[in-house]
């Protein structure tokens, strides 16, 4: 039987075709577009930006940070074109930097993908809960972390069941997701422009500052601490929303014409999401009726919708976003399972034989289930109630959710950093694929590396003064546990590498 160009390229990289290559270039673009999901991140982490900077963190911060992320995406597009494998980032690092670089990259990528599944599914549960509360006053009494957590568990079961179906079914689902996001976002923007009686002025949208961080920088909206500590924390909105685009690489073994299609799909998913997300976020700001009330309500979008729209309209907007988030976490689980499959195929995950198995539908079912279980485990701290308000005006926030968001950003972007740096170091010795940056890598790669280092530093910092051990009001429940989980994971990996892994792990294994 003659080999296709895709199968030949994969064989050159050392693998036989095991997964079902039925995805089109549009489907490949669609999975990253779905995981980026402006109906997910723009809704679930809006409060992070409002509380840490206010409107300027959104109106100005979004396009600024998006530009840096697009540069990172261009660097990765060149890499996926050269090495279109399911292992994606891990495989690139191994090829250019050796087994040790590949080992750390793979685990950071996997940790970030676990966090992505967990955070999006938890956000999805929260927004379905808000939707049902808007439509029915009898749905539930107040906000409940336990009720949301149960819904989160149900969502994990649903998306795992969807992923266990055929790979072709997932491709179709991602295609539908793109149009849901486009039409849904357009509908929401229209509703927020037309229906509210009043609107925030454009001047305020691009100039208003808020510090609702429970005391960081003394609660001030000016000064060094505000500009260089509080405001950058608000950029988590953009950095978290526009991530997960490595899915184009993870699905490259299932994509036709992957050498070009996956590279193109990756940067286009970032570009179109950045534009659509900015328009959507500006419509949120434009609909604000009472900025002080939004701040008092914790900065969440539900407060804005309750101000600007009737209960039914607000519920409909939230429901549209909730289904968008369901598409998003379904795609995130697809990406995570393919990474776990590829990494296990090379023997780097305990129980590798189990996770690298594919079923009769050519789907790594065991890896799908494992990823869902890990996502559940790392979100258990979300059951701990954290009140950043007062006894008279309580504001219950899922601090653990923001920690999982930070884990996602840190894990994924550190994994991106390693192969980007390795490609930069290789210089002209790097052999590009059909999609290449040419000499532009010489300035793009260092910018990408520096941006990733800076954001990873910021997102391990406490988001409230009570999270600093030196603070009188310190309490463990306020701690951003992202650095604890990431740091502990890196320590375990370091010990494991030196005690055992370096003796037997030689990087990607060939199956051809």
TrEMBL record:
Keywords of this entry: Membrane, Transmembrane, Transmembrane helix, Transport
Domain of life (superkingdom): Bacteria
Annotated InterPro entries: AA/rel_permease1 (IPR002293)
Membrane topology listed for this record: Multi-pass membrane protein
Gene Ontology MF terms: transmembrane transporter activity
GO annotation, cellular component aspect: membrane
Transmembrane annotation, as ranges: 26-50, 56-80, 101-128, 148-166, 178-195, 226-248, 269-288, 313-336, 367-388, 400-421, 441-461, 481-499
Claim: Membrane is one of the keywords in the record: yes
Subcellular location: Membrane
Coiled coil: none
Main localization of the protein described in the UniProt heading: membrane
Protein's name in the database: Amino acid permease
């Amino acid at each position: 039987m003659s080999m296709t160009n895709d199968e030949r390229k994969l064989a050159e990289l050392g693998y036989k075709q095991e997964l079902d290559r039925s995805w089109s270039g549009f489907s490949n673009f669609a999975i990253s577009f779905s995981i980026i999901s402006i109906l997910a991140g723009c809704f679930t982490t809006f409060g992070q930006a409002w509380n840490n900077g206010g409107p300027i963190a959104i109106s100005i911060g979004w396009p600024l940070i998006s530009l840096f992320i697009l540069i990172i995406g261009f660097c990765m597009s060149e890499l996926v074109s050269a090495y279109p494998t399911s292992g994606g980032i891990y495989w690139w690092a191994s090829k250019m930097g050796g087994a040790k670089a590949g080992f750390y990259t793979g685990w950071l990528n996997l940790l970030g993908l676990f966090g992505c599944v967990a955070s999006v599914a938890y956000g999805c549960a929260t927004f379905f809960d808000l939707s049902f509360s808007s439509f029915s006053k009898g749905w539930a009494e107040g906000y409940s972390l336990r009720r949301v957590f149960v819904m989160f568990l149900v969502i994990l079961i649903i998306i795992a069941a969807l992923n266990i179906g055929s790979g072709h079914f997932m491709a179709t689902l991602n295609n539908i997701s793109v149009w849901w996001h486009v039409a849904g976002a357009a509908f929401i923007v229209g509703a927020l422009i037309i229906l509210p009686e009043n609107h925030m002025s454009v001047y305020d949208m691009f100039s208003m500052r808020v510090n609702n961080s429970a005391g960081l920088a003394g609660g001030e909206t000016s000064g060094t601490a505000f500009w260089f500590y509080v405001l950058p924390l608000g950029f988590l909105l953009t950095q978290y929303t526009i991530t997960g685009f490595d899915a184009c690489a993870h699905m490259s073994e299932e994509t036709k014409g992957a050498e070009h299609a996956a590279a193109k799909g990756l940067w286009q998913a970032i570009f179109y999401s950045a534009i659509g997300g900015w328009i959507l976020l500006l419509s949120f700001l434009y609909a604000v009726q009472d900025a002080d009330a939004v701040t008092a309500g914790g900065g969440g979008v539900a407060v804005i919708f309750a101000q600007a729209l009737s209960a039914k309209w607000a519920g409909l907007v939230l429901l549209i976003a909730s289904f968008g988030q369901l598409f998003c976490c379904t795609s995130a689980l697809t990406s995570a399972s393919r990474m776990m499959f590829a990494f296990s195929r090379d023997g780097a995950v305990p129980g590798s034989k189990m996770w690298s198995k594919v079923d009769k539908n050519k789907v790594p079912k065991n890896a799908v289930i494992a990823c869902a279980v890990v996502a559940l485990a790392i979100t258990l701290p979300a059951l701990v109630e954290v009140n950043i308000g007062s006894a008279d005006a309580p504001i219950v926030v899922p601090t653990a959710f923001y920690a999982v968001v930070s884990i996602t950003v840190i894990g994924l972007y550190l994994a991106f950093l390693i192969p980007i740096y390795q490609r930069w170091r290789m210089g002209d010795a790097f052999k590009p694929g059909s999609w290449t940056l040419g000499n532009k890598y010489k300035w793009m790669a260092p910018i990408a590396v520096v941006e990733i280092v800076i954001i990873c530093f910021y997102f391990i910092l406490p988001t409230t003064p009570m999270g600093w051990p030196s603070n009188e009001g310190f309490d463990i429940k306020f701690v951003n546990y992202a650095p604890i989980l990431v740091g502990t994971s890196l320590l375990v990996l370091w010990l494991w590498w030196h005690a055992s892994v370096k003796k037997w792990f030689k990087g990607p294994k060939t199956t051809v």
